[in-house]
Amino acid sequence: ATGAELAKAGFAALTGGGRGVMEAANRGAHELGGKSYGLNIILPQEQKENPYVDKSIEFKYFFTRKVCLVKYSCAFIVMPGGLGTLDELFEAATLVQCQKIGPFPLILMGSKFWNGMREWGQEMMREGVFARDEIGFGYVTDSPKEAVDLVVRSLPSAVRMRLRPTK
Fold first, then answer.
1. Which one of 17, 19, 30, 88 counts the least CB within 10 Å of its CB?
2. How far is the C-alpha of 47 from the C-alpha of 42, rounded, in Å?
3. Within a 10 A sphere around the Cβ of 100, how many other Cβ atoms?
4. Strand 138-141 versus strand 106-109 pairing type
5. CA distances from 147 to 102, 119, 126 (A)
6. Does residue 103 have a cis peptide bond before it, meaning omega lies within 30 degrees of 0?
7. Cα 90 to chain center, whole Å?
8. Element (H, E) at 17
9. pLDDT of 21-66, one tens digit each?
10. Per residue in 113-155, pLDDT tens?
């Protein structure tokens, strides 16, 4: 559903290109006629792009893949995931906090899944690790439409005008 909402709004879906949730996002965009890209990491176990990726780029190293994920994105819509997902999320969060990129919303899909991290973030704020305005770019939602609307609203108007929504 999130990939489809991205396509409806005129965005490409850019994922790690693998199976599971990444495949679902690519499929949603692809089936609505939107662009669908994968940035695949080469791992010892079998890893190939999913069938809904229009174009795939393979990476040997995680750090180069993360650079490209950020470079070619205007936001991250982050699905529940593991250590790789957290690595990419915190890389982007650090770049936003240090004002190396932005505006760049980080939208976490799945309020139940991300609740523990939200509580941890609140505790870190209370401890003075960072201020609220340093993490004010993060959002949590269960709605693909709301997630994409947040991305659209974060864009400068000149960029918003260039979006070409699918019909």
1. 19
2. 7
3. 11
4. parallel
5. 17, 21, 27
6. yes
7. 12
8. none
9. 999 999 999 999 999 999 999 888 767 889 999 999 999 999 999 9
10. 999 999 999 999 999 998 888 877 789 999 999 999 999 999 9
User: Residue 69: how many CB atoms within 10 A of its CB?
Assistant: 18
Residue 89 near residue 106, CB atoms below 8 Å: yes
Q: How far apart are CA 85 and CA 66, in angstroms?
A: 11
Tokens of 86: 């957290």
- The model's pTM is 0.92
- Taking the C-alpha atoms of residue 36 and residue 17, their distance in angstroms, rounded to an integer, is 9
Please spell the DSSP secondary structure of 46-114, one letter per residue.
-----TT-SEEEEESSHHHHHHHHHHT-S-EEEPS--HHHHHHHHHHHHHHHTTSS-S--EEEE-HHHH
Give the dihedral sign, CA 111/113/119/124.
negative
